[in-house]
């Protein structure tokens, strides 16, 4: 086996392991069971992009008790519906300011999933109060609103599903996801407009 | 850079997935465990939904708790090493509560006075907008905190719940699993499922959950002390069981009053007798109804016994059936003032809404019933024991002192540990049937 082929085999194995961890249809969590349509109804947008920044906010004393932590990811990429360039901040409860100060949260995305440089699809909802008065775009359903994306051998981007009960339940090409997502988003925006809500 | 081919990755994934055939384990370990000193559980009962606190029926195996705290206590004992008392208390779990069979037991500490910090082991709600999450567990340095988003409608059960409600007990069981060190399972278990509205199925541990807690703390050791009985005579607690140390046992209690975090009430340096099968100890002042555990010398999880229910004082008085309207208004309302202590003999029944100047009879019996009689409902089963007749005043109020030392019949003697049902019959000449009944009360009595 040549060094090149062994590296390639290792990559395949790693991706296989990752797909196994995040893509089997029996992975669940203590979050809402959502279809893609329900996710779109409950959120204000979705982005496909790269995590370029991560920071953690520590609220020491709040109306909801002491020591609330929120992680914010900055995702740079494209709006999933329009393809327009965008940079979105999405937040979820939990995280560490440093090695000693912070909290692990059971429903947060895994450390692997929130790594800088990852390509992700993130569903977000503008939220005035995520707890303790913290306002941000919530990563809706916490880890259930974040899906990893990879390129296949032909350079097509594939979004990894998280299993039954998640908005993206099985792996699908980004182009397919866009095709599914766009009319759902347009329908939601149309209904919101009819209801007199401000466009998002 | 050339990316790994997804097709090959998927194929490899399939091969690995096939290797994980049904029957294998799929629990996930988070990398932490809880030492015996940090297994306390308390609830800051700030849940706002009426359905989160409308289960007011006392459960004999969960003395002193109703509503949300009762639901969360049940969730905690389900992770326990052995059946909690006789295992009853949840109509949805035929195999009983206490299914972990590991060297692990939570110590129920009752109510908290606030949501607590990251290591205060407290359940509470959190007020936030919809973020798509039902609840979460946080783990800090040596403890945890569990929060339930108040934007959902929580329900304390105990049986089936409406489809638009979320089951507090199921959610608590899941989050407590995180607290003790389990991640999400890839099987459909307590630690795995998305909690849909109306779903109560995640209250009960399945095999994968049990294997997970056993992987963390070990299968329940034969040396682990085990409590099999507890009796309290008003002063002294007697515990029966196995595996107690000859000397230096600790007896842990539930705290009687809410605390932010607080120490577990305990008595230390306690000897046992009967070859480690019997402990007698005075109950400390700060202990209340809840659970009792015994810890033998040692630092492992196997040094702490199972949790056993302990009633200190009395279960609360419970209304068992409503009053019915009479000719003058919405009907007579019966209430009771009492310490519920047989020794104190201080039971006084009183009623309002009776017809002014009319005679009434209070009566009691040992079993509930529901039988339409005259203008109302007879809520007590035979035999009925009548108290002396009384006359309502001009406002339709009356008082009935009950002398427990002078029962109307030997069979009507009230003993500690018994629950008796009380109701009032009264004349209503203008009513169609000529008489009516009040509501009824179930009154538990203590030493």
Write a structural description.
By secondary structure, chain A is an alpha+beta fold. Chain A has one domain (27-194). Helix content of chain A is 24%, strand content 36%. Chain A contains 3 helices and 10 strands. In chain A, the strands form 2 sheets. In chain A, strands 1, 2, 3, 6, 7, 8, 9 and 10 form an 8-stranded antiparallel beta sheet that branches. A two-stranded antiparallel ribbon of chain A has the order 4-5. In chain A, a hairpin with a 5-residue loop joins strand 4 (95-96) and strand 5. In chain A, helix 2 (36-42) crosses helix 3 (174-194). The longest helix of chain A has 21 residues, at 3-23. In chain A, 45% of the residues are buried. Mean pLDDT of chain A is 87; it is low at 1-6 and 12-29. Chain B has 447 residues and is mainly beta. Chain B folds into 3 domains: 26-217, Collagenase (Catalytic Domain) (3-Layer(aba) Sandwich), CATH 3.40.390.10; 226-310, Sandwich (Immunoglobulin-like), CATH 2.60.40; 318-444, Immunoglobulins (Immunoglobulin-like, Sandwich). In chain B, the strands form 7 sheets. In chain B, strands 15, 18, 21, 22, 24 and 25 form a 6-stranded antiparallel beta sheet that branches. Chain B has a 5-stranded mixed beta sheet with strand order 2-1-3-5-4, with helices on one face. In chain B, strands 11-10-13-14 form a 4-stranded antiparallel beta sheet, with no helix packed on it. In chain B, strand 1, helix 2 (67-78) and strand 2 form a beta-alpha-beta unit. The radius of gyration of chain B is 26 Å and the shape is globular. Chain B starts with 5 loop residues before the first helix and ends with a strand. Residues 1-23 of chain B have low confidence and may be disordered. At the A-B interface, helix 1, strand 2 and strand 5 of A face helix 1, strand 4 and helix 3 of B.
């Amino acid at each position: 086996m040549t060094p090149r082929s062994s590296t390639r085999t290792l990559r395949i194995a790693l991706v296989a392991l990752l797909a196994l961890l995040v893509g089997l249809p029996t992975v669940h969590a203590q979050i809402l069971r959502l279809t893609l349509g329900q996710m779109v109804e409950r959120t204000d947008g979705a982005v496909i992009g790269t995590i370029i920044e991560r920071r953690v906010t520590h609220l020491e004393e709040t109306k909801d008790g002491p020591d609330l932590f929120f992680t914010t990811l900055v995702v740079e990429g494209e709006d999933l519906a329009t393809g327009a360039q965008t940079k979105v901040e999405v937040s979820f409860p939990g995280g560490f300011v440093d090695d000693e100060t912070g909290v692990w949260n059971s429903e947060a995305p895994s450390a692997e999933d929130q790594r800088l440089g990852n390509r992700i699809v993130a569903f977000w909802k503008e939220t005035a109060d995520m707890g303790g008065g913290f306002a941000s775009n919530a990563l809706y359903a916490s880890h259930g609103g974040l899906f990893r994306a990879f390129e296949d051998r032909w350079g097509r981007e594939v979004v990894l599903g998280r299993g039954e009960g998640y908005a993206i339940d099985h792996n699908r090409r980004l182009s397919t996801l866009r095709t599914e997502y766009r009319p759902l988003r347009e329908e939601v925006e149309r209904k919101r407009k009819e209801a007199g809500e401000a466009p998002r | 850079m050339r990316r790994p081919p997804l097709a090959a990755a998927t194929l490899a994934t399939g091969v690995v997935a096939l290797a994980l055939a049904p029957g294998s384990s799929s629990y996930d370990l988070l990398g932490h465990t809880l030492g015996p000193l940090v297994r306390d559980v308390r609830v800051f009962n700030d849940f706002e939904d009426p359905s989160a606190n409308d289960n007011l029926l006392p459960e004999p195996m969960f003395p002193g708790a109703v509503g949300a705290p009762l639901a969360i206590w049940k969730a905690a004992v389900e992770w326990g090493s052995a059946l909690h008392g006789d295992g009853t208390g949840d109509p949805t779990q035929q195999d009983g509560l206490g299914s972990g069979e590991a060297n692990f037991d939570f110590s129920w500490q009752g109510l908290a006075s606030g949501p607590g910090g990251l290591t205060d082991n407290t359940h509470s709600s959190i007020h936030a907008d919809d973020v798509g999450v039902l609840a979460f567990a946080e783990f800090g340095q040596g403890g945890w905190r569990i929060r339930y988003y108040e934007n959902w409608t929580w329900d304390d059960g105990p049986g089936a719940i409406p489809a638009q409600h979320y089951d507090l007990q199921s959610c608590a069981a899941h989050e407590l699993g995180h607290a003790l060190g389990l991640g999400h399972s890839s099987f459909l278990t307590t630690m795995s499922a998305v909690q849909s509205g109306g779903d109560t199925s995640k209250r009960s541990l399945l095999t994968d959950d049990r294997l997970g807690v056993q992987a963390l703390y070990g299968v329940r050791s034969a040396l682990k002390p085990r409590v099999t009985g507890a009796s309290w005579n008003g002063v002294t607690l007697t515990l029966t069981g196995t595996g107690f140390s000859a000397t230096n046992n600790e007896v842990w209690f539930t705290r009687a009053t809410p605390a932010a975090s607080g120490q577990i009430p305990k008595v230390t340096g306690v000897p046992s007798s009967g070859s480690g099968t019997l402990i007698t100890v005075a109950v400390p002042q700060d202990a209340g109804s809840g659970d009792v555990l015994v810890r033998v010398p040692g630092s492992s999880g196997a040094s702490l016994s199972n949790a056993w229910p302990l009633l200190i004082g009395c279960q609360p008085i419970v209304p068992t059936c409503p009053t019915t309207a009479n000719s003058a208004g919405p009907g007579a309302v019966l209430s009771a003032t009492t310490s519920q202590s047989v020794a104190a003999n201080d039971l006084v029944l009183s009623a309002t809404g009776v017809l002014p100047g009319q005679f009434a009879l209070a009566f009691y019996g040992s079993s509930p019933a529901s039988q339409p009689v005259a203008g109302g409902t007879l809520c007590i089963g035979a035999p009925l024991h009548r108290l002396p007749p009384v006359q309502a005043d001009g406002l339709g109020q009356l008082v009935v002192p009950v002398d427990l030392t002078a029962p109307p019949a030997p069979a009507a003697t009230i003993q500690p540990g018994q629950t008796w049902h009380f109701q009032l019959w009264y004349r209503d000449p203008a009513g169609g049937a000529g008489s009516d009944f009040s509501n009824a009360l179930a009154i538990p009595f203590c030493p």
